[in-house]
Every structure is written in structure tokens, then in C-alpha cells.
Amino acid sequence: MAPTTCLRIPFLPARGRSANVNAPPSWLPRRLSLKSSATNGPFTSADVMGADWKGLKVAYQGCAGAYSEAAAKKAYPNCEAVPCEHFDTAFQAVQNWVVDRAVLPLENSLGGSIHRNYDLLVQHSLHIVGEVRLEVHHCLLANPGVKIENLKSVMSHPQALAQCEHTLTGLGIEHREAVDDTAGAAKIVAEHMVQDTGAIASSLAAKLYGLDVLAENIQDGKNNVTRFMMLARKPNILRNDRPFKTSIVFSLEEGHGQLFRALGVFAQRKINLTKIESRPHKERPLRVSDDCSSLLKNFDYLFYVDLEASMADPKIQNALGNLKEFATFLRVLGSYPTNVNEP
Question: Does residue 341 have a pLDDT over 70?
């Protein structure tokens, strides 16, 4: 069976906050209505861990054979994985009821954070309802008959290229070409029958597109793991009967020690932070401050923080209440069970 075509949808602006975001819009065809009984209310950790997700539509970025597709099927076994051309397409597909969920990458142990998805979290009103980790094993692919010594260039997703940089240099492959996803690179190489260009993708992509695997496990580090977030329109039911993680984003006024003060509200309550990430504030990229002698223009930042706690815990509720007293912006992105597929 031919690989599924990537989903392309026209831009559909998110509905205003006054609208009922949990009700299907009037233009939604009946066949796209949610089928799982688990979606009739907020999700529980049991829903995320053990449900039979048959019939659930789950968006991922890339073409068939992408690592994100494998992550989607690991997060939601038996789901219908729906390929999307871009990250923002997947966000829009969930928010506008074209699909039920999305599974998208947030960070990789070798390549670091996927900054685009951090930005999109703020731009859309979706909730993180779970996370899943996937071991990534990169392969060097080429058309049948092509040898490694024939390759002058290689194409793949920028993260995959970065994760294999030293290996590619050692193989004498000089040129790199970035494309939207790993499986898409394999598809391009196969469709154009190029003889001097390879692709970095999965062994599954090699099978799907009829390519040979010239080398396996070509990533520079042995432990190559990507963490994916599971997105939905509704949040989880708050509970603390198992390890939970809560993700927040906030911004602060300019001033000495403001970030120290913000992080202190969690330290005082012995709430562990597992990640902190800063991104320039898109709506307020620069702030002007008076440094006595001259006016300085500095970046205004959003801070993304992951906490080892459930929103059901009074400690984190108190901490966020404290933070809200002096933060200029604060939003809970999700409170969810950690790595739902870990044995």
C-alpha cells in the first residue's frame, strides 16, 4: 500500500476564548467526530496508559515512516496516524477538530530542543496530556546499487543531520541538505532516483520507499532519545496517584534577581525542576531599560519550566499562586503522567 499523503489544511484561526473549545464547530463533518468514549470528558492517567485507541486520529509531522509516526503509535496503540506537512499543521488539525490528538517532538538527547514546538505551544490553546520517549536509530539510505563512496551529499531533517555530523564527516560525505523530515528525505531520494545523494532515516522508511540501508546506527551518540509531547483539546483530570509532570510558561518584569525569585517559589516548597528553557517573547521581542547612562534594549523572554508534580498537589497550586503575584504572564501547558509507556 502506498504511503499516506501528508495532511495539508488551510489556516483556520483559533476560536476566541469565549467560545466553547470542547464543542465541535458547525462545519465539522460527522465522520470526523470523536469516537472514543474516553474523549467525552477530561483524560485520566488510566486513559493515557491503557486505553484501546482504535479509530483515534493522531497527527504527527512528516511522511509515513517518520520517527514521529512511530512515537504516535507508541503513545496511542492502534490509532490512525495522520501525517502532517508541518508542525503548525498538526497543531491546527487538533485545535480545529480535524484530528483527535497530536504527538510532536520537544527535545532530543543529542540535538537539543525543538524550539518551533515551544513557540507553537503558546500560540495554540492545546493541552499536554502525556509524554513518550523514543529511541532513535538513524540509518544511511540510498537507491539500490549505490555505495557509500558514491555519495557526495546527504539529506534529512536538520536534527538528524546534527545528530550524525561526526559520522558523516568520517564517511567523507561533505554536503548536507535539510528537509522537513527524515522519511521525506528518503521519499525524495527514491522518487528522483538520485545516485550521489543519500538520506538519513529509519529502516522502516527504507522498506517503504525501496531504498538500501548502507549503514545502521550512524548517530554520533549511542543514547539517542527523543521526547515527544501528546497534545489534546482537553486537559487531564488532576490526580497525584502516580508520578506526574507539570509544564508551565511564564514571563517576568525586568529587574535584578527576578528569575531567581521565580524559581525560588518552587525551591521553597521542595518542587523539583526537570527542565527550564527560555525563548524570546514573539509579541514583545525587545524591552527598553534605563541603565543610568543610556537606554538599553534587551530581549524579553518566555520561560518554559517542567516540574515534578501534579496540579492536584496543593504545593504546586500554592507555588503557582505565589508566582502569579509578580509574573507578567503565566500559563499551565499541561499536567500529565510522565513517560506513559515506560515498563
Answer: no
